Input
Amino acid sequence: MAQILDGLKVSKDIKQEIKVEVDKILAAGKRPPHLAAILVGESGASKAYVNSKVKDCKEVGFKSTLLKFSDTITEGELLGEIQKLNQNPDIDGFIVQLPIPKGMDEQKVIDAIDASKDVDGFHPENFGRMALEMEAYLPATPYGIMTLLERYNIDTQGKHCVVIGRSRIVGRPMSILMSSKGNPGNATVTLVHSHTQNIEEFTKNADIVIVALGAPKYLKGSMIKKGAVIVDVGITRVEDTGEKGYHLEGDVDYESCEPKAGWITPVPGGVGPMTRAMLMKNTLLAYKRKF
Output
Protein backbone atom coordinates (compact mmCIF):
# COMPACT_ATOMS: atom_id res chain seq x y z
CA MET A 1 0.00 0.00 0.00
CA ALA A 2 1.55 3.25 -1.16
CA GLN A 3 1.52 6.45 0.85
CA ILE A 4 -0.14 9.37 -0.92
CA LEU A 5 1.74 12.44 -2.11
CA ASP A 6 -1.21 14.75 -1.48
CA GLY A 7 -0.80 17.73 -3.82
CA LEU A 8 -4.14 19.18 -2.81
CA LYS A 9 -3.14 19.41 0.85
CA VAL A 10 0.37 20.77 0.17
CA SER A 11 -0.93 23.33 -2.34
CA LYS A 12 -3.41 24.62 0.27
CA ASP A 13 -0.54 24.98 2.77
CA ILE A 14 1.54 26.92 0.22
CA LYS A 15 -1.35 29.21 -0.71
CA GLN A 16 -1.92 29.91 2.97
CA GLU A 17 1.77 30.81 3.37
CA ILE A 18 1.52 33.16 0.36
CA LYS A 19 -1.65 34.76 1.78
CA VAL A 20 0.18 35.54 5.05
CA GLU A 21 2.91 37.32 3.04
CA VAL A 22 0.35 39.25 0.96
CA ASP A 23 -1.48 40.34 4.12
CA LYS A 24 1.82 41.80 5.39
CA ILE A 25 2.36 43.60 2.05
CA LEU A 26 -1.14 45.12 2.23
CA ALA A 27 -0.69 46.04 5.90
CA ALA A 28 2.42 47.99 4.88
CA GLY A 29 0.22 50.04 2.53
CA LYS A 30 1.60 48.54 -0.69
CA ARG A 31 -0.35 47.26 -3.68
CA PRO A 32 -0.94 43.49 -3.98
CA PRO A 33 0.94 41.30 -6.49
CA HIS A 34 -0.80 41.28 -9.89
CA LEU A 35 -1.01 38.30 -12.28
CA ALA A 36 -2.47 38.56 -15.78
CA ALA A 37 -3.48 35.77 -18.15
CA ILE A 38 -4.10 35.79 -21.90
CA LEU A 39 -6.63 33.25 -23.15
CA VAL A 40 -7.08 32.76 -26.90
CA GLY A 41 -9.97 30.71 -28.25
CA GLU A 42 -12.72 28.61 -26.71
CA SER A 43 -10.97 25.47 -25.41
CA GLY A 44 -12.95 24.14 -22.46
CA ALA A 45 -9.88 22.78 -20.69
CA SER A 46 -7.96 26.05 -21.11
CA LYS A 47 -10.93 28.10 -19.87
CA ALA A 48 -11.31 25.89 -16.79
CA TYR A 49 -7.60 26.12 -16.09
CA VAL A 50 -7.47 29.92 -16.41
CA ASN A 51 -10.59 30.33 -14.27
CA SER A 52 -8.99 28.23 -11.55
CA LYS A 53 -5.93 30.51 -11.65
CA VAL A 54 -8.18 33.56 -11.20
CA LYS A 55 -9.76 31.80 -8.21
CA ASP A 56 -6.30 31.06 -6.75
CA CYS A 57 -5.35 34.75 -7.06
CA LYS A 58 -8.46 35.72 -5.11
CA GLU A 59 -7.65 33.15 -2.40
CA VAL A 60 -4.14 34.46 -1.78
CA GLY A 61 -5.04 38.14 -2.12
CA PHE A 62 -3.48 38.82 -5.54
CA LYS A 63 -5.04 41.07 -8.14
CA SER A 64 -5.74 39.21 -11.41
CA THR A 65 -6.55 40.30 -14.95
CA LEU A 66 -7.92 37.93 -17.57
CA LEU A 67 -7.65 39.00 -21.22
CA LYS A 68 -9.82 36.90 -23.53
CA PHE A 69 -9.44 36.91 -27.31
CA SER A 70 -11.22 34.94 -30.02
CA ASP A 71 -9.14 32.56 -32.10
CA THR A 72 -9.52 34.98 -35.03
CA ILE A 73 -6.86 37.20 -33.44
CA THR A 74 -3.74 37.40 -35.62
CA GLU A 75 -0.29 36.48 -34.37
CA GLY A 76 0.76 40.13 -34.77
CA GLU A 77 -2.17 41.34 -32.66
CA LEU A 78 -1.38 38.77 -29.95
CA LEU A 79 2.27 39.86 -29.89
CA GLY A 80 1.03 43.45 -29.52
CA GLU A 81 -1.07 42.48 -26.47
CA ILE A 82 1.98 40.73 -24.95
CA GLN A 83 4.02 43.89 -25.48
CA LYS A 84 1.41 45.94 -23.61
CA LEU A 85 1.68 43.61 -20.61
CA ASN A 86 5.49 43.70 -20.78
CA GLN A 87 5.37 47.50 -20.52
CA ASN A 88 2.66 47.72 -17.85
CA PRO A 89 4.42 48.41 -14.51
CA ASP A 90 1.36 47.25 -12.54
CA ILE A 91 1.55 43.71 -13.94
CA ASP A 92 4.16 41.64 -12.06
CA GLY A 93 3.80 38.46 -14.07
CA PHE A 94 1.63 37.04 -16.82
CA ILE A 95 0.99 33.87 -18.74
CA VAL A 96 -0.26 33.05 -22.20
CA GLN A 97 -2.44 29.97 -21.79
CA LEU A 98 -1.24 27.17 -24.07
CA PRO A 99 -2.03 25.71 -26.51
CA ILE A 100 -2.62 28.72 -28.75
CA PRO A 101 -4.55 28.37 -32.06
CA LYS A 102 -2.96 26.44 -34.92
CA GLY A 103 -1.04 28.55 -37.37
CA MET A 104 0.59 30.67 -34.68
CA ASP A 105 4.25 30.20 -33.77
CA GLU A 106 4.15 29.12 -30.12
CA GLN A 107 7.88 29.70 -29.59
CA LYS A 108 7.64 33.21 -31.04
CA VAL A 109 4.83 33.99 -28.58
CA ILE A 110 6.81 32.62 -25.61
CA ASP A 111 9.93 34.53 -26.72
CA ALA A 112 7.91 37.79 -26.79
CA ILE A 113 7.17 37.59 -23.05
CA ASP A 114 9.54 39.67 -20.91
CA ALA A 115 11.66 37.06 -19.07
CA SER A 116 11.25 39.01 -15.81
CA LYS A 117 7.45 38.57 -16.05
CA ASP A 118 7.50 34.98 -17.36
CA VAL A 119 5.96 33.31 -14.31
CA ASP A 120 5.26 30.11 -16.32
CA GLY A 121 9.04 29.69 -16.66
CA PHE A 122 8.90 28.88 -20.39
CA HIS A 123 11.09 31.69 -21.77
CA PRO A 124 14.50 30.50 -23.10
CA GLU A 125 16.25 32.84 -20.66
CA ASN A 126 14.55 31.25 -17.65
CA PHE A 127 15.04 27.75 -19.06
CA GLY A 128 18.74 28.44 -19.61
CA ARG A 129 19.19 29.91 -16.14
CA MET A 130 17.47 26.86 -14.63
CA ALA A 131 19.80 24.53 -16.59
CA LEU A 132 22.81 26.49 -15.28
CA GLU A 133 21.46 26.29 -11.70
CA MET A 134 21.06 30.07 -11.54
CA GLU A 135 18.06 31.86 -10.03
CA ALA A 136 15.13 31.59 -12.44
CA TYR A 137 11.37 31.20 -12.63
CA LEU A 138 11.02 27.43 -12.72
CA PRO A 139 8.28 25.93 -14.94
CA ALA A 140 5.29 25.54 -12.63
CA THR A 141 4.72 21.77 -12.96
CA PRO A 142 8.33 20.64 -12.39
CA TYR A 143 8.62 23.24 -9.59
CA GLY A 144 5.46 21.76 -8.05
CA ILE A 145 6.83 18.21 -8.21
CA MET A 146 10.15 19.26 -6.62
CA THR A 147 8.23 21.05 -3.85
CA LEU A 148 5.98 18.02 -3.26
CA LEU A 149 9.03 15.73 -2.93
CA GLU A 150 10.65 18.25 -0.57
CA ARG A 151 7.59 18.64 1.67
CA TYR A 152 7.25 14.87 2.04
CA ASN A 153 10.99 14.49 2.73
CA ILE A 154 11.44 12.07 -0.17
CA ASP A 155 15.16 11.38 -0.38
CA THR A 156 16.28 11.74 -3.99
CA GLN A 157 20.05 11.90 -3.50
CA GLY A 158 21.86 9.14 -5.36
CA LYS A 159 18.54 7.59 -6.37
CA HIS A 160 17.78 6.44 -9.92
CA CYS A 161 15.01 8.59 -11.40
CA VAL A 162 13.33 7.75 -14.71
CA VAL A 163 11.44 10.56 -16.43
CA ILE A 164 9.03 9.40 -19.15
CA GLY A 165 8.41 12.12 -21.74
CA ARG A 166 10.71 14.89 -22.97
CA SER A 167 8.40 17.89 -23.39
CA ARG A 168 9.83 21.33 -22.75
CA ILE A 169 7.07 21.97 -20.22
CA VAL A 170 7.62 18.94 -17.96
CA GLY A 171 9.92 16.10 -19.02
CA ARG A 172 13.08 17.94 -19.98
CA PRO A 173 13.05 20.51 -17.13
CA MET A 174 12.21 17.69 -14.70
CA SER A 175 15.30 15.75 -15.78
CA ILE A 176 17.45 18.88 -15.28
CA LEU A 177 16.03 19.66 -11.83
CA MET A 178 16.28 16.09 -10.53
CA SER A 179 19.95 15.94 -11.53
CA SER A 180 20.75 19.42 -10.14
CA LYS A 181 22.67 19.88 -6.91
CA GLY A 182 20.52 19.89 -3.77
CA ASN A 183 17.75 17.84 -2.22
CA PRO A 184 15.41 17.15 -3.94
CA GLY A 185 17.98 16.69 -6.69
CA ASN A 186 21.32 14.85 -6.91
CA ALA A 187 19.53 11.94 -8.58
CA THR A 188 20.88 9.87 -11.46
CA VAL A 189 18.37 10.62 -14.19
CA THR A 190 17.34 8.62 -17.25
CA LEU A 191 15.05 10.43 -19.70
CA VAL A 192 13.02 8.01 -21.84
CA HIS A 193 10.66 8.86 -24.71
CA SER A 194 8.81 7.47 -27.73
CA HIS A 195 12.05 6.32 -29.41
CA THR A 196 13.40 4.55 -26.31
CA GLN A 197 13.43 0.78 -26.68
CA ASN A 198 12.22 -1.43 -23.81
CA ILE A 199 11.15 1.39 -21.48
CA GLU A 200 10.21 -1.29 -18.93
CA GLU A 201 13.87 -2.17 -18.42
CA PHE A 202 14.46 1.36 -17.15
CA THR A 203 11.30 1.76 -15.05
CA LYS A 204 11.72 -1.62 -13.30
CA ASN A 205 15.05 -0.46 -11.87
CA ALA A 206 13.95 3.09 -10.97
CA ASP A 207 13.61 4.38 -7.41
CA ILE A 208 11.53 7.31 -8.74
CA VAL A 209 9.36 7.33 -11.88
CA ILE A 210 7.92 10.60 -13.19
CA VAL A 211 5.42 10.08 -16.03
CA ALA A 212 4.50 12.98 -18.32
CA LEU A 213 3.21 11.41 -21.53
CA GLY A 214 -0.48 12.19 -21.85
CA ALA A 215 -1.21 8.48 -22.35
CA PRO A 216 -3.89 7.26 -19.91
CA LYS A 217 -2.88 4.34 -17.65
CA TYR A 218 0.42 3.87 -19.48
CA LEU A 219 2.54 2.89 -16.46
CA LYS A 220 1.44 -0.50 -15.11
CA GLY A 221 2.31 -2.10 -11.79
CA SER A 222 4.37 -4.73 -13.64
CA MET A 223 6.67 -1.93 -14.89
CA ILE A 224 7.80 -0.67 -11.46
CA LYS A 225 9.81 -2.05 -8.58
CA LYS A 226 8.45 -2.45 -5.07
CA GLY A 227 8.66 0.73 -2.98
CA ALA A 228 9.22 3.09 -5.93
CA VAL A 229 8.06 6.73 -5.80
CA ILE A 230 5.54 7.30 -8.61
CA VAL A 231 4.70 10.82 -9.81
CA ASP A 232 1.85 11.06 -12.33
CA VAL A 233 1.84 14.27 -14.38
CA GLY A 234 -0.66 13.11 -16.99
CA ILE A 235 -4.25 14.28 -17.04
CA THR A 236 -6.46 13.21 -19.91
CA ARG A 237 -10.20 13.66 -20.34
CA VAL A 238 -11.63 10.23 -21.09
CA GLU A 239 -15.19 10.14 -22.39
CA ASP A 240 -17.74 8.17 -20.39
CA THR A 241 -21.51 7.94 -19.92
CA GLY A 242 -21.52 9.82 -16.59
CA GLU A 243 -23.08 13.19 -15.85
CA LYS A 244 -20.06 15.21 -17.05
CA GLY A 245 -19.55 13.03 -20.10
CA TYR A 246 -15.90 12.44 -19.17
CA HIS A 247 -13.58 11.61 -16.29
CA LEU A 248 -9.93 12.43 -15.71
CA GLU A 249 -7.25 9.78 -15.99
CA GLY A 250 -3.54 9.98 -15.29
CA ASP A 251 -0.63 8.33 -17.09
CA VAL A 252 -0.32 5.82 -14.24
CA ASP A 253 -2.55 2.78 -13.91
CA TYR A 254 -3.24 3.61 -10.28
CA GLU A 255 -4.97 0.31 -9.39
CA SER A 256 -1.98 -1.83 -10.36
CA CYS A 257 0.77 0.58 -9.23
CA GLU A 258 -0.61 1.70 -5.86
CA PRO A 259 -0.24 -1.66 -4.02
CA LYS A 260 3.40 -1.91 -5.14
CA ALA A 261 4.63 1.70 -4.88
CA GLY A 262 6.10 3.32 -1.77
CA TRP A 263 4.65 6.75 -2.60
CA ILE A 264 2.23 7.80 -5.35
CA THR A 265 0.42 10.93 -6.55
CA PRO A 266 -3.32 10.63 -7.21
CA VAL A 267 -5.11 12.07 -10.28
CA PRO A 268 -6.78 14.43 -9.71
CA GLY A 269 -5.36 15.96 -6.53
CA GLY A 270 -1.67 15.29 -7.06
CA VAL A 271 0.49 17.34 -9.39
CA GLY A 272 -2.29 19.60 -10.78
CA PRO A 273 -2.95 21.69 -7.64
CA MET A 274 0.83 22.01 -7.12
CA THR A 275 1.26 23.51 -10.60
CA ARG A 276 -1.29 26.21 -9.76
CA ALA A 277 0.29 26.94 -6.36
CA MET A 278 3.74 27.37 -7.95
CA LEU A 279 2.34 29.91 -10.40
CA MET A 280 1.26 31.95 -7.37
CA LYS A 281 4.73 31.48 -5.84
CA ASN A 282 6.46 32.66 -9.04
CA THR A 283 4.17 35.71 -9.20
CA LEU A 284 5.01 36.63 -5.61
CA LEU A 285 8.70 36.25 -6.49
CA ALA A 286 8.28 38.54 -9.53
CA TYR A 287 6.58 41.12 -7.29
CA LYS A 288 9.33 40.93 -4.65
CA ARG A 289 12.06 41.40 -7.24
CA LYS A 290 10.56 44.79 -8.13
CA PHE A 291 10.31 46.16 -4.61
About this structure: The mean pLDDT is 96.
